[in-house]
């Protein structure tokens, strides 16, 4: 009797391994279309929410221009932009995908630009600084 049980169990195991199950997924046309739309929108979107380092916010345009010149002299290869949000001038540098990416540079900048802070910004994907 035991032999029959063992033989049956072994046969069932062999049969279960030899069966190739075919799974067919039928995707609704609307789901397929939504997925295609999402993918094309992602490719078309050229900006992401990322981070920059704001090195100065001041109502004094001359002070802003002096800070820009100082930064450009120290870091000529780092992207810099400024904006006038009345009554303040803001200078932002770098382009990072996450806050962690900018922290090393932030420590370095803080030595010369004490008011530097990370800020959320819309960033072109091709501007991102990779580390």
Q: Your description of this structure?
A:
The protein has helices at residues 2-18, 29-44, 61-74, 99-110, and strands at 47-58, 80-85, 88-96, 117-124. The protein has a domain at 47-127: Alpha-Beta Plaits (2-Layer Sandwich), CATH 3.30.70.1070. The chain is α+β, with helices and mostly antiparallel strands and 131 residues long. The chain has a 4-stranded antiparallel beta sheet with strand order 2-3-1-4, with helices on one face. The chain has 4 helices and 4 strands; from the N terminus they run ααβαββαβ. A hairpin with a 2-residue loop joins β2 (80-85) and β3. The mean pLDDT is 85. It is elongated, with a radius of gyration of 29 Å.
List keywords for this structure.
45% helix, alpha+beta, four-stranded antiparallel sheet, 27% strand, 131 residues, Alpha-Beta Plaits
Give me the secondary-structure topology:
Layout: H1 2-18, H2 29-44, E1 47-58, H3 61-74, E2 80-85, E3 88-96, H4 99-110, E4 117-124
Antiparallel strand pairs: 1-3, 1-4, 2-3
């Amino acid at each position: 009797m035991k032999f029959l049980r063992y033989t049956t169990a072994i046969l069932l195991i062999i049969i279960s391994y030899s069966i190739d199950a075919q799974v067919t997924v039928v995707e609704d046309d609307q789901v397929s279309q939504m997925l295609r739309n999402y993918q094309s929108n992602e490719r078309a979107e050229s900006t992401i929410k990322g981070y920059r380092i704001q090195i100065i916010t001041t109502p004094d345009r001359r002070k802003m221009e002096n800070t820009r010149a100082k930064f450009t002299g120290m870091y000529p290869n780092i992207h810099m932009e400024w904006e006038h949000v009345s009554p303040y001038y803001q200078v932002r540098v770098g382009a990072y995908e996450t806050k962690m990416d900018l922290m090393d540079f932030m420590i370095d900048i803080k030595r010369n630009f004490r008011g530097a802070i990370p800020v959320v910004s819309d960033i072109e994907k091709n501007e991102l600084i990779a580390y």
